[in-house]
Amino acid sequence: MNLFIFNNLNKDEIVKSLLKFKNNGDTDAYFKAARHLITFSENRLTDMDLIDEYVLRAMLEQDNLPNPENVRDFLRSDIKTIYNEILCVNWDKLFKESGLVSVSSIASKPVNTGLHGYTRSIEGMLASSSREALMGSFLAHAEIFGTGKSSAYAALKWENKRFKGILNIDPITFNDLTGLEHQKRILIANTESFVNGKPANDILLSGSVGTGKSSCVKACLNMFKDRGLRLIELKKSDLDDLTLVFNNISNQILKYIVFIDDLSFEPDDMSYKALKVALDGQAESRGGNVLIYATSNRRNLIKETWSDRDGGDEIHRSEALAERKSLASRFGINLSFLTPTQNEYLTIVEEMLKRENIEMDESIRSKALTWQIQYNGFSGRTAAQFVSNLLGE
Same structural domain for residues 67 and 177? Predict the structure, then answer.
């Protein structure tokens, strides 16, 4: 196919195999395409035509596409070619005429990426009755969601030097989190400003295990995902990839939070320097549509030992200690999550039970207190675990 901006399709194994079958009747090409489509079907978003969805998503999820508005004539030419060569072809009829199994018999259920608006937009394009209608739908989609792999999922993780979409994201909302009113207010205000294109800060959420730090970040995603927010999970062991992560975020329409959970460093761990550079560099190094949210059980992030205090062999001991301690201060906002008191813990349990239409009584109160002694102490996580156990009895 003679294409300008979607020439990646000419290198795509499924597309090449389908065209080879259509033009030459090559059954080996059919089997190759069908095998790949069976694999793709495990990540289908709709229950509409599988081949059409594959081709459209290959177009939309191609990274580093130019802004479609700036290349309308080339886009129109490409869509005309793709529509005529692939999208308006009755593939099942061709397969049946050759005595082959219909691809439409692949019946995998659509997956949940957490973005219902994105899926509805794909369905609208698949329902286009002409290439002109498809052109309009494509431009509308690109204006709202942009293009590239990172646009198709509410949350992604950085794995093996590339983004991987996360299915069935945690549906938690701020209404599910009892207490934490100050922390929720700060997080919502900062993220709202970010999504609206206004100045916003990186955030460090620090505090004891189970106090709701990670849950608050996930609740932020669920509050703003339909307004263009995406979450990228980055493991601490991949901090040296931060620059690569930033370079792979080519979509300038969406907003991204790079989320680093359970962040802390041993004294001899120098990977903190990559994070320090990212925090210091701000928009110049990572673009104005990326923030960093991190959680940690340590307020100062880097473990301090007695040898650090004594100076060891370091000549400039005070400068070294100051550099390590200042890492946390490079986040624009530091939010502390304190361990709940006994009464706060019981209040969290009571609120969770109310959602299940269960009234707190002395028996349940006693069980909740016994549970925290046997398990993880006073925390929101302990309360949730207790309620889950109670509901399972």
Answer: no
